[in-house]
Write a structure and sequence with these properties.
Chain A is an all-beta fold. Chain A has no helices and 11 strands. Chain B is an all-beta fold. In chain B, strands 2, 5, 6, 10, 11 and 12 form a 6-stranded mixed β-sheet that branches. In chain B, strands 3-9-8-7 form a 4-stranded antiparallel β-sheet, with no helix packed on it. The chains are: A mainly beta (116), B mainly beta (113). At the A-B interface, β4, β5, β9 and β10 of A face β5, β6 and β11 of B.
Chain lengths: 116, 113
């Protein structure tokens, strides 16, 4: 059973650019959540996808968007990058549907985004 | 709004000593509660979780946590710390919908030889 994988590992962009981060969920998992972890802070929930539809969203602006594909892998897209977007972006997958689910989230190693 | 707090930013213990990391939560109803560990450059690894039932939860690597409703706490403990336990520890809560997982700010654990 493969775990959660993310690509790329590191990324450097300039302010105003757009970026796409990718996540492959663990085998058998249909739910993917994305988190932003700024340096020295706990992860903050961005949004969750369940069976290709957004299933919940944290306090992030619309320039943060996502997709989930039929194989349950996922993308996080960020438009008009700002300096404060520099962070570790974590993806987590789980088996549940997010509505009262007690399933555990399994995290990938993250993508380190630096915005200059 | 739901919140999870970890009062200690940084804790240092000697190898072999006991450990307790504090976590407090603020939720309308009893939440699901979790402890994760993050080593440098690594993702988050689940140590243990509380959903309901027995308030003392056993986890991996010799960790345990106790849910105390009266104190709104979910403290993590380990009787004897190993040097490899040095890492960042995060407490997290879930408001039963699984759509707004809230992490605490983390506690960094250093272990002295």
């Amino acid at each position: 059973e493969t775990g959660v994988t993310q690509s790329p590992t590191h990324l450097i962009k300039t302010r105003g650019q757009q970026v796409t981060l990718r996540c492959s969920s663990q085998s058998g998992h249909n739910t993917v959540s994305w988190y932003q972890q700024a340096l020295g802070q706990g992860p903050q929930f961005i949004f969750q996808y369940y069976r290709e539809e957004e299933n919940g969203r944290g306090n992030f602006p619309p320039r943060f968007s996502g997709l989930q594909f039929p194989n349950y892998s996922s993308e996080l897209n960020v438009n008009a990058l700002e300096l404060d977007d520099s962070a570790l972006y974590l993806c987590a997958s789980s088996r549940g549907g997010g509505t009262g689910s007690t399933d555990t989230q399994y995290f990938g190693p993250g993508t380190r985004l630096t915005v200059l | 709004a739901q919140s999870v707090t970890q009062p200690d930013i940084h804790i240092t213990v000697s190898e072999g000593a006991s450990l307790e990391l504090r976590c407090n939560y603020s939720y309308g109803a009893t939440p699901y509660l979790f402890w994760y560990v993050q080593s440098p450059g690594q993702g988050l690894q689940l140590l243990l979780k509380y959903f309901s039932g027995d308030t003392l939860v056993q986890g991996i690597k010799g960790f345990e946590a106790e849910f105390k409703r009266s104190q709104s706490s979910f403290n993590l403990r380990k009787p004897s710390v190993h040097w490899s336990d040095a890492a960042e520890y995060f407490c997290a809560g879930d408001d039963n919908y699984g759509q707004n997982f809230v992490f605490g700010p983390g506690t960094r654990l250093s272990v002295l030889p």
